[in-house]
């Protein structure tokens, strides 16, 4: 055990987070997500971490305790848009995760981009890693773009 690190962050997940660079993306997905297929990726297999006892929100909170979001892009957070719903519609779980992001100072609601299902899959294929949770709420899939740690110097 290490002090100050959320216990949901397993050694494998900590290694993945440490290996990520600025602009790399990590997916935190629900139990229904097609993670095994998408983890194959165009450049070979990507890390796939299983956290079956945790929800998407719990894992997102733990990951974002260590991972800064990218301030250089307009929308460092993407989530899978629910099919057969109008654009902008959010499930209760999506609203809850976005509220956690806003209240935690990680992102504004405007920085969270709803993404059509197959476009979301395309982004996942390029992501650094996937974390598959035990979340049973469908469409509980989020993608986070890593930012920079440290002070940005402006000339």
From TrEMBL:
- Please give the Gene3D superfamilies that the UniProt record associates with this protein: RbsD-like domain (3.40.1650.10)
**UniProt KW keywords:** Isomerase
| UniProt keyword annotation of Cytoplasm present | no
Q: Does the keyword Isomerase apply?
A: yes
Reactions catalysed, semicolon-separated, are: alpha-L-fucose = beta-L-fucose; beta-D-ribopyranose = beta-D-ribofuranose
Q: Name one Pfam family in it.
A: RbsD_FucU
Q: Which InterPro entries match?
A: RbsD-like_sf, RbsD/FucU_mutarotase, RbsD_FucU
Q: What is this protein called?
A: RbsD/FucU domain-containing protein
- Please name the source species: Ideonella margarita
């Amino acid at each position: 055990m290490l002090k100050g690190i959320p216990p949901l962050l397993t050694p494998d997940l900590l290694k993945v987070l440490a290996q990520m660079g600025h602009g790399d993306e990590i997916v935190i997905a629900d139990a229904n997500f097609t993670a095994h297929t998408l983890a194959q990726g165009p450049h070979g297999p990507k890390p796939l971490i299983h956290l079956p006892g945790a929800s998407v929100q719990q894992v997102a909170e733990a990951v974002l305790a260590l991972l800064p979001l990218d301030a250089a892009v307009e929308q460092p957070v993407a989530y899978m848009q629910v099919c057969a719903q109008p654009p902008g519609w959010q499930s209760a779980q999506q609203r809850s995760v976005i509220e956690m992001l806003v209240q935690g100072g990680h992102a504004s609601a405007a920085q969270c981009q709803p993404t059509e299902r197959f476009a979301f899959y395309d982004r996942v294929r390029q992501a650094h890693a996937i974390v598959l949770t035990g979340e049973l709420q469908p469409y509980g899939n989020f993608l986070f773009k890593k930012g920079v740690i440290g002070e940005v110097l402006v000339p």
